[in-house]
Design goal:
This protein has strands at 2-5, 7-8, 17-25, 30-39, 54-55, 64-71, 77-82, 87-93, 107-114, 118-126, 139-148, 154-158, 176-178. Strands 2, 5, 6, 7, 8, 11, 12 and 13 form an eight-stranded mixed beta sheet that branches. A five-stranded antiparallel beta sheet has the order 1-3-4-10-9, with no helix packed on it. The radius of gyration is 16 Å and the shape is globular. Helices cover 0% and strands 45% of the residues. The chain is built from no helices and 13 strands. With 184 residues, it is mostly beta strands.
Length: 184
């Protein structure tokens, strides 16, 4: 798995945490992702866990982890949102914030564990029936997080940030590359 470290936007570094992300693609058609927050996790406003994973919109309004995935050379991309409650969402775009739909062919299995010092969120996304993401070739990825503290303060984390307010859809900040799985 490739490992990446997220950085806070501008002056957002109030909460002393480190956020790392691991990602991989499998030959069986799965996208595997693991977000870990290490540090003062007890200060983060974590939503109540659901009994079972549920699809839910507007997860970005609270603590949430995100992966933006596009096939290199194509304007089409998919946004995945994962909440510590095990809620998740997925959106397909034709271009920058345009033509949004919710793909129905995805099966997402999130798993969350946390203590006051570590928050781990793993997700397995079955993309085997997704004609766009299962294309062979390298992916460009934007990995990000919205962290809400208990007092309501939010910080925005990503691999890289463009000038101006946080914009996780900005493909110039998608600096991670994930090759297609090697069949050998």
């Amino acid at each position: 798995m490739a490992v990446y470290k997220l950085v806070p936007h501008g002056d957002d570094l109030r909460l002393p945490v480190v956020i790392t992300v691991e990602a991989a693609r499998t030959l069986e058609g799965c996208f595997l992702i693991h977000f870990q927050v290490a540090g003062h996790v007890g200060h983060i406003n974590l939503p109540e866990p659901h009994r079972y994973p549920v699809r839910q919109d507007e997860l970005w309004r609270r603590t949430c982890f995100e992966a933006f995935v596009g096939v290199a050379g194509s304007s089409i991309y998919t946004e995945f949102n994962f909440a510590p409650s095990t809620a998740w969402a997925a959106y397909r775009f034709d271009g920058y914030r345009a033509g949004m739909i919710s793909p129905t062919e995805l099966n997402v299995l999130p798993n969350v564990q946390h203590t006051d010092d570590i928050l781990d969120l793993w997700a397995t996304v079955d993309i085997s029936d997704d004609a766009v993401l299962c294309l062979s070739g390298e992916w460009q990825m934007g990995l990000s997080a919205v962290i809400e503290e208990r007092d309501g303060t939010k910080s925005y984390w990503a691999l890289a940030h463009a000038p101006g307010p946080p914009d996780f859809h900005n493909r110039n900040c998608w600096i991670a590359r994930l090759p297609a799985p090697d069949p050998s």
